[in-house]
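This section describes the prediction task in plain terms. A model, or a person checking by hand, is given the sequence of a single protein chain and must write out its three-dimensional structure as a string of tokens. No templates, partner chains or ligands are provided. The sample shown here is typical of the held-out split.
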Amino acid sequence: MRSRAPWLLAALVVASFIILLALAVASAQALAKNTAQYVGCSNPLQAVGGYRTVSTVDAFRRTYDTNGGTVERWADPTNVLWERFDAELAAHVSKYGKPMDVIWFQLCVVKARPVTDQDARDVVTLIRQRLPVATIYVSPLGEPCDKADLPYGRYLTDLLVNEGLVLRGPVFVPLKPSEVRADNCHPNAEGKLVLGQQMADFFDPL
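The expected answer:
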């Protein structure tokens, strides 16, 4: 009598492959429901870098260059920042078949550059033009940051939330002196992880 063992083994291998493939697809779909991107300056760029180190969900799939992205620059539809954002959006759609579901807008307000209430509203409008159904969360810059107008950033956050334009995003615990670079504004390696963990606590359950 011919042994059936090889056939049974082959069947088990195929069945195992199908199960693993189904689990992989399910996992990818679960992640895809939670994809996010950010708008802001170097601070959210660094915070997202820390987030991607600590998060098990990885809603923010990539970082991109937002250095110098203060509110009034994002309010200008011709600024190069929007070219970078649009490139990220196109790459995301190409890879995942859909745009991001969540945008995190951190309001970077620098004392040396004038910003208006309307500038903040205009940034939200420009996001909405690209992502009409995305959920937008807004946060002010966290402490410390000597060159930032932190009170005005908090005011703008409240303004956008109270006008119903956005939802309130994570509010960061002030970084310790040992977690900040010499400029007393940007997080160091340790500070990035601290911010990243707070981001994971906020965004990963969404």
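For orientation: Residues 5-32 form the longest helix (28 residues).
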